[in-house]
Design a protein that fits this description.
Layout (H helix, E strand, L loop, with lengths): L3 E4 L12 H11 L9 E5 H7 L3 E3 L7 H10 L3 H9 L1 E8 L2 E6 L4 E3 L18 E3 L5 H16 L4 E10 L2 E12 L5 E2 L15 E2 L1 H13 L8 E5 L24
Parallel strand pairs: 2-8
Antiparallel strand pairs: 1-12, 2-12, 3-7, 4-5, 5-6, 8-9, 10-11
Helix pairs in contact: 1-5, 3-4
């Protein structure tokens, strides 16, 4: 069994309204890849957010009292904090330079996933532009998948990933924020190991494992490879969604 990850060449800088499936098909042709049943396309969140017009200029944001209060604690721009609060269900932790929230999508992250790296708008000071996550990454994944499947006539999976920090460990890793056509979790309970022991608790975060692998190929700076083609995913494709990867708060011992 081999798992092959290939960054696609020729993806241009994405602008609001761009047709991502058309661009991906062009990049597949440039990279000399033809889609097959079982292939997966992994997309960096940034290109999806940009295509969906999730760019915001901070000069258009007026911070409220809560944002001003958190600005005193964190030292962050209160306009950025206003956006973070608008994208979040609740604030979980704060300290100087950091705010951890439960995002409206259900996962826990720093800054509600709002980012400035590799982001620029078409007016004003480039430093004032930030990018929000897609409103519904599962829906975005499904839409992109449908368009690609219509073109290739095969069964695909689509994964949208972002870079998240992790509790207990330093460093960011690629993490799934939206998916369509592949499992988020793979349940191995009841399977036998080498010594015929039946697994009792093993749930594999397969989508996150693939997200981390694809993130290695994408890079984090000026690599300009925001789409990775995957062949040889070791689990059967099925319908999946972000919610299966999120631990309910009542079962979270650290929240």
């Amino acid at each position: 069994m081999a798992l092959t990850l290939t960054p696609l060449r020729g993806i241009p800088l994405i602008q609001p309204g761009d047709d991502l499936p058309t661009m991906i098909n062009a990049a597949l042709a440039e990279t000399e890849l033809k889609l097959q049943d079982g292939d997966i396309l992994v997309l960096a969140q940034k290109i999806v957010s940009k295509a969906e017009g999730r760019l915001v200029n901070l000069t258009t944001v007026t911070p409220g009292d809560r944002a001003m209060g958190y600005a005193e604690v964190t030292g962050k721009d209160p306009r950025l904090l206003e956006l973070i609060l608008s994208e979040s269900r609740k604030v979980l932790r704060t300290r100087e330079g950091l705010i951890i929230v439960e995002h409206n999508l259900g996962f826990v992250s720093a800054n509600a996933g709002i980012d400035h790296s590799n982001v620029s708008g078409d007016w004003g000071d480039p430093e004032d532009w930030v990018l929000l996550l897609p409103e519904d990454p599962d829906r975005s994944s499904a839409s992109i998948r449908s368009a690609l499947e219509d073109t290739c006539g095969c069964r695909l999976g689509v994964l949208i990933i972002d870079s998240h920090g992790r509790a207990w460990r330093n460093g960011t890793v690629g993490t799934t924020i939206g998916l369509s056509g592949l499992p988020g979790l793979v349940d191995l309970r009841g399977e036998s190991d080498l010594f015929n022991y039946h697994l009792r608790a093993t749930l594999v975060g397969a989508a996150d494992e693939l997200a981390a692998a694809a993130s290695l190929m994408m890079g984090q700076a000026a690599e300009a490879t925001p789409v990775v083609h995957v062949r040889g995913f070791p689990y059967a494709l099925r319908e999946g969604g972000l919610q299966e990867l999120l631990r309910p708060e009542e079962r979270d011992l650290f929240r």
